[in-house]
User: What shape does this take?
Amino acid sequence: MNRKSFSLAVLAAAVAVSVSVTALHAQTRGGNAVVAITQAPPTLDAQVTTIQSARHINLHIYETLYARDENGKPVPDLAESVAVSPDGKTYTLALRKGVKFHNGKTMGSADVVASLERYRKIGANANLLSEVETISAKGPNEVVIKLKKVQSTLLDTLSSSTAPLAIYPAEEAAKGANKIAYIGTGPFKFVEFIPDSHVKLERFKDYVPNPHYTKRDGFAGKKEVYLDTVTFRFMPEAGARVAALQSGEVHLVETVDGPTKKRLETNPAFKIYKLLPFSFQIIKLNHAVPPTDNLAFRQAVVAALDMEEIMSIAYPDIYQLDGGWLYPKSPAYVGVGLNTYNKPDLKKARELVAKSGYKGEKITFLVDNLRANTDTATVVQQRLAQIGVNVDIKVTDWPTAVKIGWSPEGWNLFAHGFGIQPFEGPGTVMSAFAGGQLHQKPDAEIDRLYAAYSGELDAEKGKALFASFQQHMINDVIAIKVGNYGLFQVGTAKLRNFEPYRIPRMWGVWLDK
Amino acid sequence: MPQYLLRRFIAAIPVMFLVSLMSFAVIWLVPGDPASSFLDASATQEQIARIRQELGLNQPLWQQMLHWYGRVLTGDLGQSILLHRSVGEALLERLPVTLSLAALALVLAAVLGISAGIFAAMHRGGTADRAVMTASLLGLSVPDFWLGLVMIVVFAVGLGWLPSGGFVPITESVVGWMRTMTLPALTLALVQTGFIARMTRSAMLDVLDQDFIRTADAKGLKHGFVVLRHGLPNAMLPILTVLGIIAGSLLGGAVVVEQVFSLPGVGRLIIGAIMSRDFPVIQGGLLFLAAIYVVINLMVDLLYAVVDPRVRL
Amino acid sequence: MNPSSSFTRIVRRVLAHPSIVIGGGLVLAVAAVALLAGVVSPYDPLASNFRMKLQTPSAEHWFGTDHFGRDVLSRVIYGGRLSLQIGLMVVLITGLFGTLIGSVAGYFRRLDDPIMRLMDALMAFPAILLALTVSATLGASVQNVIIALSIATTPHTARIVRSSVLVVREMQYVEAARALGAGDWRILWFHVLANSLAPLIVRLTFVFASAILAEAVLSYIGVGPPPPTPSFGNIIANGRDFMVEAPWVTIFPGLAIVVCVLGLNLLGDGLRDLLDPRIKVGP
Assistant: This one.
């Protein structure tokens, strides 16, 4: 063979191989994916609720001006760029052009202004916009936000996913809470919502993925849709979710527990995704009623607990022991004060109980009926019994727990998850505890630190402020951080290119035939 | 007959009124409200207050009662807070599911139960009789939700023959409907079969003891023929009464079975409403169930009148 | 008449009914285990050992362990104790109030209609929804479960008592007693109630059975007795996340329920056959 035909042969072979390799990895277009989630959303009006199940669905239908990337940093999504005035109080946002709503209307500054004003009035986290003085349109594609004072967190707010500042058409934004038609700019379009069964979405044909990005990135990036439709089925029973996955009725399950994951991971028909950390397990203490109003008593409680015992029972195989008030990969994560985390010492705990003057009265541990929370209470009750503290577990359903937990009476301890705040950043974590809402007693130190953080544009200084906050949380036992837990998500092996995130993202994924 | 029906209907009104009063008592007494379903664990007092305001929950109770009764008298059960549709719509959407389940279970239980009861009566005192009776009693002693869970583990997960939950409307796919209804209907039916078998047996025994049966036997007719042709029709009355009673308890059992198999029926709707404090749905749902109960009783009475000419009112 | 021979006669009559023997035997066995829980139970039902989670049934743990590492057999034994306590309390309360309400309604004509309307209204919902609503209102606790279940079972009991009372009221000897000047209440208690005793006893046996079943359902829905104390229902409820991986946590308490309830149903059947086969009281 001469050199020329040899090179031709090599070229041909290379082409053949690359063609076949591409064929192997080509995305399959079409198909209907079914995702099993644990709870039905209370509403599909994204702005008015902070419930996680609403986010799972709403962040497919709607978009925000800025969005969080894979690491939680705000990056442009519906906005193209922002120009900040030298005094830090005026933000001019340039909007992307040619973005369409699901009803065919082109998004413009009027829609953005209307949506943001609506959020200021009825958004679930409207207080995040409390420092905003005015919001106005400057031409069809620019929006100007003027602040009363400098806020380091404005872009965080615009990109927040907790109760997102979703952009609606101005006509919808004029409507009251829960009265809108579900029209957004997102990659999926609303089809139907059967409240205790499912929500169905379909691919929005006129969706243009953001041209500034080349791949999927958190809630932002390039959102390409390969599926025809996605159905989110509400299945509160863990056993039913797994059964549905195994029988093929469902392609992805939002969460399965450790033992199930162990059983399924050897089965080539399924793929396991591990998302850790996803949330904190915390125990709030009521600082307004005895004996938890006493610092020594609170310290006694901390000293008695074995965090590993609690986490391994509540969240088997999917937990991390970490005492920090942010996720480990967060840029502002600090190790301040963590040398005292998870150091159970029953002797020391008994001494602290004695010091606190506790007389043996019953204390109430409030939980809703989520198994992980009732299990947390059960373990804590046993441990505290060993140091002579009587705990009465009050299990209620969620509405009653909310009613009692947000009043200064009727509870001493309250366990639940705390997930979206650490993701959204130090400001969000601090604001949750500012005003003393969560522990029933105003705390001047936290308020001071939070106010300072809001006004602090320098990242390093901000991090230092958060470190002080964390130290204060630990010293004063404002609330107890038990540990981090995560999610095991399981999908059929036919579901390709899925990567777990704060919500099960159904863009960028496809179903093999 | 129409006067009879009218009389019974009027008699039902105070009952319905009491039911509605009880549902208001529930709203008054039960702590918490629907605002909590919109907010997660870190909600603040002001967030809760704002949502309560938007949902109109701050009206005094007597005002809410007045509005509700006013609406009900015009046939409007109000608007669900969490389901974004009228209560009436929500109930009607879910009725086919509960009805399919209850009807299917009733048919299964009736067929199995009546045949078992007749069989036992015919072999009275023998081992067959004892076996059937013990099996029936066993059926009655099994908790229906537990049975459902076991069925899921064995048939849906273990053998993979049937789905573990969800509902496919019959209009969409007959096969799909049958598959999603099989395990729930079986679970629900198993308990009721026991009831029906026992009742049928005792009704048949009463009848078979009577003279006209002995006469028929003496005439030389085959005993089986006698039982079915002469005995059964006379036992129908008590059997029908039982079916009427069963229909009521089927509704109750359906509530639980719907939970286990995630069927979007009326029972699950009401349980969900109680758990999330969707007050209009709780009230509308309870009234609706009471109405169904009244209607079923009326129908049983009607059947009574049809089957037994002596009961002509 | 020799007292001991009439006693033996009664005993022999009782023993002639296999349902009473078997049913009664089962119930006594369960009750014995529950009473002797402290002695019979191999482990502390509350002692968690998270390194021994979800063990399959073995020689050390006959019923396996749950996800806390607690011994399921011990929990089932103590669960039986709580479930039986709840059942017994429901029986007592239902018996007391059902009799009171039923006899007043049956005897005093003017009160009959309003009382029975109220009972009808209560019976117009599936018992489970009634119990669920009461529990959600009052909060989940053993006491509230008992109240909720009693409210659900009393109307039917009242109805049964009322029926008996109606029958007896018309009888000759009651008229005679009244003619002789005996007070209403006396007549009521001595003659009337004595006659309704049979159906009442049978009914209460079935109430016991249904209370055990209902407690399990309430626990399953989430409004049963709170942790950590086990009841049959809450063992199943707490283990249901792991139903597929660790079915023993679901299966054994369920079987225990079946055994208890079957025993009670057999006993009720047998008692009915013994006392008066004509009465139409069923499980």
Notes: DSSP finds eleven helices and no strands in chain B. Residues 223-260 of chain B form the longest helix (38 residues).
